[in-house]
Amino acid sequence: MKSISVTIFMLLLVLVACAPAATTTAPTTAPAANTSAPGATSAPAATTAPAANVELNFFYPVAVPGPITQIIDGYVADFKKANPSITVKPVLAGSYQDTLTKIQTSIQGGGNPPDVAVLLSTDLYPLVDADAVIPLDDFIKQSGGDAYLKDFHPAFMLNSQSQGKTYGIPFQRSTPVLYYNKDLFKEAGLDPEKPPKTWQEMADYAVKLTKKDASGNVTQWGLEIPSDGFPYWLFQAFAISNGQNVVSDDPSKVFFNTPTTVEGLQYVLDLSKKVKAMPEGVILWANVPNDFSGGKTAMAYHTTGSLTNILSQAKFNVGVGYLPGNKKPGGAPTGGGNLYIFKKVSPEKQQAAWKFIQFLTTPERAAQWSIDTGYVATRKSAYDTLLMKDFVAKHPQYGVARDQLQYAERELSTHNSPQIQQIFGNGIQAAITGKKTPQQALDDAQKEAERVLVQFKP
Amino acid sequence: MSDLSSANPFATERVSVSSTTGSIARSRRRAQSSLLPYLLILPTFIFVTAFTLLPTLNVLHDSLFRQNQAVRVPRFVGLENFANLLDDPGFHKVLGNTLLFVVGTVPLSMALAFGMALLLNQHLRGLALYRLAFFYPTILPMVSAATIWLFMYAPEYGLVNELLRVGGVRGPNWLGDPSWVLPAFILMAVWKQAGYYMVFYLAGLQGLSSDYFEAAQLDGASWWHTIRHITFPLLMGTTLFVTTIAVVASFQTADQIYVMTAGGPDNASNLLLFDIYETNFRFQDHGSASALSVVLVLILLVFTVLNFRVVERRVTYD
Amino acid sequence: MTRRTRQAMLTLLLVAVSAIWLLPIVWTILVSFRPATEPIVSGRIWFGSTLTLENYATAFRIAPFGTYYLNTLLIAFGILAAQLVTITLAGYAFARFEFRGRDLLFALLLLQILIPSAALIIPNYATIRTLGLFDTQLAIMLPYCGSAFGTFLMRQTFKSVPRDLDDAARMDGANWLQVLRFVYLPAGTASLVAFALASITFHWNEFLWPLVVTNSERTRPLTVGLAVFTQLGELGAQWPLVTAATLIVAGPLFVFFLIFQRQFINSFVRSGLK
Asked: Which residues make beta-bridge pairs with A301?
């Protein structure tokens, strides 16, 4: 027994010793220079190459299962070659939601906070409210100011700025598009080069594309619009294209129950209940690409990020079109993640982080990133690169999302975005599943959201 | 379930107390004023104090404060967090779902477990294989099982609806329909757990003396009669024990919700522990989440106390 | 009904139920070997075109399952090592010592059984942060290092050891540790093994707590790694890849179970009841 217990005790000691002391690495107090605007005090120090090595904690989520880790690792290695004094440590933190949660945790004093991170563009207000991130305007001035900012698609900047300040630099950004099966279009007597442009057209096409077997069971759906995971996102397209978005630049206001939005929800509901061209109930986000490439649905709403995957699976001609509009054409929200720099880190690190952000968002890299992942390249000049020009010429489907961006609007982003998005999503699902009428569901959601948001009013 | 600790010690406690009273005199003589026993229990108590006793007090304390993304410095609000819960239709739904899930899962898995144990208690060929078939879901991590079932429940190409189609039935949109999503979770929980509970029944059956059954056979009792009036009553202890661990485990369901639905559609599959997780970690509403935790702790305490009384009564009257 | 027909019917019933129970895993295994570039359509999974190992290779390339394995092993066996010490010592104390406050302390201890740690996930998480242990394997392990249930189990086991053996050993001049080592532990081995198997199974599979207190590949156990892998966020599910990852995670414990099936099941019974 003695030997056993001694062994076990030793084991425990080793374990305790092995556990990295998170407290020692976490910065205990923010340096004084940090509380003022970062660029002003830190820029001069950092432009001369820092004597000591700077280590950057870089948090990023995986939203796509591709070889993102390898791509990021490649970027990090290239960056190190160009900037030997800066070492970037990439941390794959899980889903977007988990990454935000973890960062909020580390801000409250647990674990290693990141110095720079990719987070949802809609995490802007939670991050600002937690005093976690810094405005990047001083850095942007160093790097070309407005000329630099204007190169990013304006739609992406809507969720990156607040009260005249820029907090996020667009990185892996997306937007939903309409996928359609050209072969099935042809079969149904529809022009495979003309996806539906309006709600009415989409409903008509969907009916023509729905097939039933002898006993009346549907074997092929006309359309699938996913409504789980983040139901608010795709639904926003129906609010936007019907006249009014559900959110403005005031982070404590939402417009969930305006007549146009209620009408939009009624339309989605009718696609299943009246037109009977879409499955009833909530359609799972995860299943839709498989349904589409398996020929179970002829049209589908999904993120442009799914394009690469769908092209590799589908054994038919895949068409990509704008989301159909009603009162406005192709109104889609933007989505995806921005790069943020964190507050409680030294000015040297902030400067190094900015350098890294610059590196990640060069037009060439934005182009390569888009080709590798299916995300939209965030900068206009990325589409002028030879690489991208060739690519879009070969695969015109990749150009659709970019062109649609001219109609895109702000994604639902408020104080406590995750909860507000959930409230709105629950309302949408309540209507889709027939538990409430669209009016009732959206009234309730509006009331509940106001109850949460009122706490943020000064 | 939280740990092995979810097993119920009361089921056997009564036996041990009476069996040791005789020896107390001797041990008292031996080790009375020694410090040694305190040292022996010290490591255990450090952990239990740090991770059970103090946290229980902490969560009670925090449930009386408001702390969220808008109110960053905790502010005392008395019972307001609880009042808000009572007003919140979402909470009512979560509570209802949780109770439904427990009531749906526990009896069904136990009935199946009992049936499986009866079947496996025969002398048949290939018993090991059948036992393996029933038991393997137990050792599958819930996250893995949930991933598999998320796939199986896919309405267009999932295994469940594919099988139903073979039988000429068009299966529902399992996880997308508020009236099917809880049954879907219950079905999966039964598949995952029945084999585990079966093992306890199997052990109970093998511990029964064959005299009872020989007597029953002499009386010409039917198979069903024997089970109903002899086997089942004799295994009452096992049933109570399994009920306890099954109920406690069901109240702590969260992993599969995280993987499969995140509580949707419209909270139709949201259960208490997942709600706690989401409220605290995703919505950063610490006060409400603490209040929710207090509710969960209270439910578990009330259940355990009730269960203890049932056990006690059986002990007294049997 | 003759004995033979009854026997045949029982077998049929068993086969049917077993088949239903086995279907999910059989299906999962099949899907994991189907090419990822094929759409998932009815029929193609059962009678698909080709089989490939590519999904497993891709899964291993995308996520560091090797690190996750090591973490899970460290966590499961680390917890077990600590538990074996704490429950043996405390079980011994409660079984064979008479001391002031014993019953009260025992009752306090049993509170851990009544209030499972899952219900205390929020305050425990705060504790871990205060200790500066966030995102360490130790953070996952600490709450489980003391086990009321294990203590209870060992107390019951040690109580069944005859007093005379204990007395005889002490007569020979053995100290408490020697008595524990040579008299009690041999009698408690079976219980400890049972406890060990159940403990490892539980902690191998645990998810929510490690999810909450870890943040990086360095510390993440298999279950959390799998969830990270399957929560694909923006894309639809790539089932061949996801099922391969699922089986990578479940595989080893599975093989272990196949080999030690009998002991495993017996141990579960013992850990719960005796």
From this structure: A178
